[in-house]
Amino acid sequence: MPGKLFAVALMGAALTLSGCGESPEQPAATDAVGIPGMKISNARMVLAPVPGNPAAVYFDLAYDGDRQVALNRAEVTGAASAAFHDYAEFEDIRQMQEMLPVPLKKGDRITFEPGGKHLMAMDVSPDLKPGGTTEAAVIVSGGKKQTFAVEIRAAGDER
Question: Could you tell me which residues are beta bridge partners of residue 73?
Fold first, then answer.
């Protein structure tokens, strides 16, 4: 019996060694950055008039992907955190609030604009200056992200 176990172990080792020198099969490349069918345009960050206050990021989003997704969260390079916000009325008072995930299906168009949906960037670095650019990303449920360049504007510039 011990001889049989030795023979099986030796055969397994031989099979393992026969694969040496061969490259392991590489997994198929995936597009970790970019959501098929999503296009973001007209992106701009408007800095707060008071340094240290949040900045607002506005943009136009078009979605023509085949899979339904939901905007879940966002990132802005040069900001400690970012969150989607919208305005809602509560007890006859219009106020800003954090948005729930936004479902997207083929053909949807969303404008993130002043007075409506927008992306708030908190604790913005003083290195972000009007006339410069930064990068932002929207992240859908499941973790895929779409990155895009964002023009930086001063508080009084056109939004």
Answer: 139
